[in-house]
């Protein structure tokens, strides 16, 4: 089950650099683990912004919220979620519909 | 080169059903041709709306506009385009970054 | 799996009354069937507007879109969907979490 | 009498963790008490956000404001309230219309 | 129980003048009846707009919606409703709190 | 001459409680004086928000601004003002049109 | 007493040219009469839009609404009104504060 | 003197194709004349939209409005104008600052 | 050449009162000098807000930006600029079109 | 390949002046280098705002993001990017289409 998640990062300007770096390192690990286990099939940077566009593949809304609220940067993220259904014009790509 | 395109369809309420059907049939063909030749790698329906979320893969902005403005439904679409860069946390999936 | 759906109805002002009445009658039947089979557990009118707030209980996003796009009034609805997760402070009400 | 309340939590980024934890613990107690006594029949988490969608059942607007402004997190909440009327298509569920 | 209602009138530009006049005459009667029976204690024109600001005094949300949706101009109104509670700084004016 | 004023209070989260309390006490006095002398005929709380809806009755725009900018909480208020004219459908209530 | 009025003109695209011309001619006369009698001290065109920025000088809000709602183009105008007070830094220009 | 103009084209869906074509042909001529005489130094298409981003070089605001309001498509354009000043970091390109 | 400038002042809540007072005193001087030399023909307070509506009369956009960015409060101002052209219905007032 | 970038600068009000000055000096150097090597063909100041309108000429979206995110002021910028295609009405200016 796919959800589009648009995430905007808003770090407080006075956060110490080391703290920010540590958060970002943990975010990287967390995000890559979810990419590897298939829950985060797409992750793109929005050009010119500290923001990303993601597609998430989860079994339930609870799992979606658990995944997103577990992000180390979650307290500093503004996330908009859009549920994605199969499009009638989408062709069968011989694999999952991700 | 990837672009997110969010498309909202707004058909005039008094468009004759046959005309709408014909446009939609042509839209389907056009869209599926672009999916097959690799320019339209992702196409999802926004749940609850006559709208889609798409990822397009083109060689230039001119090619992007040509692809979008050629859509049979283009006069009735409200399209917002977001250029997508590679995300530093994205893992290498052993294929294109689509 | 629960989704909040906020629906605004926008009938064209020149729609003949009989056509509107027929659509509304079919909408009523469709909506009540979905309420009875458990997919539409809550339906409220927004005071002062031709609009509703609904909670839908479906097994997948595709089922959600099928349910919503099948509404007889769908071409005239502006629907915003919000996925709802279980809240950590919600008490167990001894029944489903609807 | 039912009201939809959409609540967004915005804690100051520099609030000490212990203070936040204490507020959240009191919020939990307060919210669960209101759920148990019937004034807060529905409470859901908005997926991906530190936010909730609630339905409140109160005898008057004054009681509604008293309930909401008594929330321990109230100074950090952005709350939008929508009054809900009975929908003419709603079926009788053999209990209150909550 | 008081509600602020901000109403914007949007008549279709091609509505025949006689039809508009008839609707407005019925609106006037309806509105004045509700003013006289106490359900519509305040009615002001927004300067420069075909719009009004109203305060309504009703016993329930259902009664509020019944009152508003019964307006002859209702299909052409965009109404935003705000529930009003007693303000702690409001003085006792020796009459109802309207 | 009547103006609708919608006021939202935004106190800085780090304002010391005593300072806030002192401001609120002065606000109360100031507001009640203006209610008593007739310049502030209506004051309601917006349910669920630290906000109010007011109707002010002043002799000029300068007097309106003087009244509002004199509020002890003025530096923390976001105020939107709407000039109110007599509505042609308003009935004569045998007193001022407030 | 001064009010800023920002007016946007939205003529229906299918209004016959003669009707539009006649409305515009009457608008011109009406506007120039109000300019001459001092109620409309400033009238500017917003560059690139069928819109104007005006300053109106009236004795009351009722007079303001009468002036604006009497505009021949009023049914096609979207008007936003802002009440203007004397600015403490404004110098005395040896005439009215217009 | 430079102005950014962002123009969105909104043709009525029921405009006859020949009329639209004729307007577009005249628009093309008009636009190219202004490009050639130096008043319209930049003209780009917004990818995915029937819209453009333009930079105009005129001697006065009146000339700007004359240029824009003379566009054959002007009645169907939504134009937002932004005045552009020289940027202190801009390098001297050995020609005009266009 | 005239520009409408709508300025909103947003002083940080923790700015020391003396610093604010000194900035405001310099703002007053600066503004009055520009009023006297003709570059700032109109300055009004927006009723109920720490904001103003101004009309500026300058020879170029660069001069406009120099004037505005030189304001002592400039770092705390949110300014929206609208270029004003002569309105075809404006009467000749026997002086400049300010 | 051209992109419009609209950048708004939002420095924290408590940033020490020396730090701001140093950032601005580096921003100037960085920006001028990109102007000289052709990646930043246009840079204008938005009159009345600490903001700019830029046109960037890059070979890919990744290069665009690298250029923008490398700006010394990037953490304090709010950037909106619009991809620009060739306009069918644009004349050939005998050089690049910048």
From TrEMBL, chains A, B, C, D, E, F, G, H, I, J:
<feature type="domain" description="Muconolactone isomerase">
    <location>
        <begin position="1"/>
        <end position="89"/>
    </location>
</feature>
<keyword id="KW-0413">Isomerase</keyword>
<keyword id="KW-0058">Aromatic hydrocarbons catabolism</keyword>
<dbReference type="InterPro" id="IPR026029">
    <property type="entry name" value="MLI_dom"/>
</dbReference>
<comment type="similarity">
    <text>Belongs to the muconolactone Delta-isomerase family.</text>
</comment>
<dbReference type="InterPro" id="IPR011008">
    <property type="entry name" value="Dimeric_a/b-barrel"/>
</dbReference>
<comment type="subunit">
    <text>Homodecamer.</text>
</comment>
<comment type="pathway">
    <text>Aromatic compound metabolism; beta-ketoadipate pathway; 5-oxo-4,5-dihydro-2-furylacetate from catechol: step 3/3.</text>
</comment>
<dbReference type="GO" id="GO:0016159">
    <property type="term" value="F:muconolactone delta-isomerase activity"/>
</dbReference>
<dbReference type="GO" id="GO:0042952">
    <property type="term" value="P:beta-ketoadipate pathway"/>
</dbReference>
<protein>
    <recommendedName>
        <fullName>Muconolactone Delta-isomerase</fullName>
        <ecNumber>5.3.3.4</ecNumber>
    </recommendedName>
</protein>
<dbReference type="Pfam" id="PF02426">
    <property type="entry name" value="MIase"/>
</dbReference>
<dbReference type="InterPro" id="IPR003464">
    <property type="entry name" value="Muconolactone_d_Isoase"/>
</dbReference>
């Amino acid at each position: 089950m796919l959800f589009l998640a648009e995430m905007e990062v808003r770090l407080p300007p006075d956060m110490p650099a080391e703290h920010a770096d540590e958060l970002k390192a943990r975010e990287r690990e967390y995000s890559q683990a979810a990419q590897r286990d298939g829950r985060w099939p797409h992750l793109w940077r929005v050009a010119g912004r500290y923001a990303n566009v993601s597609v998430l593949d989860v079994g339930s809304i609870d799992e979606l919220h658990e995944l997103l609220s577990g992000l180390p940067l979650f307290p500093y993220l503004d996330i908009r979620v859009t549920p994605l259904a199969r499009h009638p014009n989408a062709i069968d790509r011989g694999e999952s519909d991700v």
